[in-house]
Design brief:
Its main location: membrane. It comes from Schizophyllum commune (strain H4-8 / FGSC 9210) (Split gill fungus). With about 475 residues, this protein is α+β, with helices and mostly antiparallel strands. The chain has a single domain, classed as Cytochrome P450 (Cytochrome p450). The strands form 4 sheets. A 4-stranded mixed beta sheet has the order 1-7-4-2. A hairpin with a 5-residue loop joins strand 5 and strand 6. Helix 8 crosses helix 9.
Length: about 475
């Protein structure tokens, strides 16, 4: 607990920290907590092992692969649309829906099918009876509201174990359920991996008889087999990517799209302008290139990911002494200006995505306003933000940047294309009742229900 933490939004410092992955790692306590759920997935590993995994995995997340997955995004968005349409019919033309919960079901189906060729059927109401879905929920979920004191004590102990290594040797109530869930995930993961390998050997065939894979795991297996034997990822490392896909590709995308719909309820002009542009595209099943050609949709999604970045911050720890350069000097004691930060081994940096995206010295005086039009003419200062996509730190930057950023952006655009064309949205509670609840991601919740789950109640109607 005596760790020194430094909070910075200085873009030069951020660039230095996220690009020098040989010096700056994720904190050990964060990696321990993630590894307990994910194993040695790409979110956990550092150093040479991480570089090996990224080298092999990068092609699976390339532009051409995401283009091939776009029909999956559209199909499941249409399935969600049809589910909502039935609700409207049952309730007289308007339904109050928890948009966050609904989108979480859909994105779970997306990551199942597009991630590793697995059907959760969450939109069909089968998530609770699906053993992989139950195992995943057990691994990432906290104590239920109806939990016994013993279950809550076990959850608290597991929360403390990453911070206090000595506690990691103490068995916690509920550990057996976690081990069972982990075993279930490993068993199903091995089955999926075996199927992907078998398809790789005989060739994938789609409806037209073309040989190509249709999910990220299959893309990954194909890329891995193309490597020399000594460069390949082990089966254990490939298996670790299955829960990694689930964690990284599920709630973050659902949360970002939920905030997008929230903002549409708060600005009818933006909602109408976006809907008009989407209707102007005379194609119910657009390609990814067609989705990317829609300028207002593109600006709107960028602004959502700036203003409502799902993950508000990330952290790095120095593995050795270092000197971090600054774009803007700071004044410390005795009025002295400093143009760099002298860092000691073990010191942590808190990299605030939220604060960086609201910094007026970078984004302009209107940085705290939601304005998609800003993306038509950005200030030059924005170019200093380390990024893998459009000067946004939402997906971080450097060698540890989010590998699935193209997947997420394409999925969000596909969901908005289908839903905004079909429905009108109105917030079902007073805007003052909405608060931000931050855990790993920033979700909407209700002030009037402090013990309630994260949610966004919205009145949904067919678009006129």
């Amino acid at each position: 607990l005596q760790t020194t933490r430094i909070l910075t939004t200085d873009p030069r410092a951020l660039h230095h920290i996220v690009t020098r992955d040989e010096v700056y790692h994720k904190p050990e306590e964060a990696r321990f907590g993630l590894a307990r759920v994910l194993g040695d997935g790409v979110l956990v590993t550092e150093g040479e092992k991480h570089r090996q995994q990224r080298k092999i995995m990068n092609p699976a997340f390339g532009p051409s692969q995401i283009r091939e997955l776009t029909p999956v995004f559209l199909y499941l968005a249409e399935k969600l649309r049809d589910r909502w349409t039935r609700s409207l019919s049952d309730e007289g033309g308007q339904a109050r829906l928890n948009v966050l919960g609904e989108l979480s079901l859909m994105t779970l189906d997306v990551i199942g099918r597009a991630g590793f060729g697995y059907d959760f059927n969450a939109l069909d109401g089968e998530a609770e009876s699906n053993e992989l879905s139950r195992a995943f929920a057990t691994l990432i979920g906290g104590p239920r509201k109806q939990s016994s004191w013993l279950e809550r004590a076990g959850s608290l102990l597991r929360d403390l174990q990453p911070i206090f290594p000595a506690l990691r040797f103490w068995p916690a109530p509920g550990d057996e359920a976690l081990r069972t869930a982990r075993a279930t995930m490993d068993r199903i993961g091995r089955q999926l991996l075996s199927e992907a390998k078998a398809k790789a050997l005989v060739g994938w065939k789609d409806e037209e008889g073309e040989r190509r894979p249709r999910d990220l795991l299959s893309f990954l297996v194909r890329a891995n087999l193309a490597e020399s034997a000594k460069e390949r990822m082990s089966d254990e490392d490939v298996l670790a990517q299955v829960p990694t896909f689930l964690v990284a590709g599920h709630e973050t995308t659902a949360t970002a799209t939920t905030w997008a719909i929230y903002h549409l309820t708060q600005d009818l002009a933006i909602q109408n302008r976006l809907r008009d542009e989407l209707h102007a595209l005379d194609n119910d099943a657009p390609s990814l290139d067609e989705l990317n050609s829609l300028p207002y949709l593109d600006m709107f999604v960028k602004e959502v990911l700036r203003f409502y970045a799902p993950v508000p911050w990330t952290a790095r720890v120095a593995t050795r002494d270092d000197v971090v350069p600054l774009a803007r000097p700071y004044t410390y004691t005795k009025g002295r200006e400093h143009e760099q930060i002298v860092v000691r081994k073990g010191q942590q940096f808190m990299l605030s995505i939220h604060n960086l995206h609201r910094a007026k010295e970078i984004w302009g005086d209107d940085a705290d306003q939601f304005r998609p039009e800003r993306w038509e003419t950005l200030p030059d200062t924005v170019k200093s933000v380390p990024s893998v996509w459009n000067h946004l730190f939402t997906f971080s930057g450097g060698p540890h940047a989010c590998i699935g950023f193209r997947f997420s952006i394409a999925e969000i655009k596909a969901i908005l294309f289908v839903l905004v064309r079909s429905f009108e949205f109105e917030l079902a509670v007073d805007p003052s009742d909405i608060k931000v609840r931050t855990a790993a991601v920033q979700r909407p919740a209700l002030k009037s229900e402090p013990e309630g789950s994260a949610q966004l109640p919205v009145f949904v109607r067919l678009a006129s």
